[in-house]
Design a protein that fits this description.
about 220 residues, about 15% strand, alpha/beta
Length: about 220
């Protein structure tokens, strides 16, 4: 995983439109810290490329021939937990966004975002942060306001872990900062997810903001 600005962030671009892949490559490779190491026009090819190339970030479209981007993301997250998936899609319906987050995507952007925002998002997710386009964040917060279960049951230690998750720290880094083992952090995360009714750190952060466990300023 890339954590230092002097390192090169290795990117795989997954999109069934060659024009978009070419445009994305041109946008990224203007910057010396970003390198497109592979391109795929389908989910199956994307999985094979990641197995071979071990990139830091995968830019993933939602609608692909054969296996869709959400299912590809789910498999990538399961098989390559250090690879960060950033969805970049022409579709921003809530069902797609939630599906991507549930699958473990580190962020979601529209294909209409300016190149500068795409660059910043790639760097952010490579560093461990979660990235959601501002409009999408607001919609998710509104749609997730429902009677909560277990939210007030988070312990002080679980709240501390949740804050560090929002800062983009990995479980090992959280353990080092809190003076506990990575396995203990894993257990805290499992408890947090269960109490918040979510299945990923991204969902946990969004849910925590919507229930005011965290403020927007707490989350990068």
């Amino acid at each position: 995983m890339v954590t230092m600005g002097t390192d090169v962030i290795r990117v795989v671009v997954v999109d069934d439109h060659a024009l978009h892949r070419d445009g994305t490559r041109q946008i990224l490779e203007v910057h010396s810290d970003l390198q497109v190491v592979g391109e795929a026009a389908s989910g199956e090819v994307a999985l094979a490329l990641v197995n071979q190339l071990h990139p830091d970030v995968v830019l993933m479209d939602i609608r692909l021939p054969g296996m869709n981007g959400i299912e590809v993301t789910r498999q990538l997250v399961q098989n390559h937990p250090d690879v960060r998936v950033l969805m970049v899609s022409a579709y921003d319906e809530d069902e797609y966004v939630r599906g991507a987050l549930e699958a473990g995507a580190a962020g979601y952007l529209s294909k209409t975002v300016p190149g500068k925002e795409l660059i910043e998002a790639v760097r952010a997710v490579a560093g461990g942060a979660t990235v959601l386009q501002s409009g999408l964040t607001a919609r998710l917060l509104i749609s997730s306001r429902q009677p909560e279960q277990g939210v007030s049951d988070l312990s002080e230690r679980e709240l501390a872990v949740l804050r560090l998750l929002a800062e983009g720290l990995h479980n090992r880094e959280i353990g080092e900062q809190m003076g506990i083992s990575t396995r203990t952090v894993d257990r805290h995360c499992d408890n947090i997810y269960a109490k918040l009714g979510v299945s990923s750190r991204t969902e946990a952060v969004v849910r925590a903001i919507s229930t005011k466990l965290l403020t927007v300023s707490d989350e990068h």
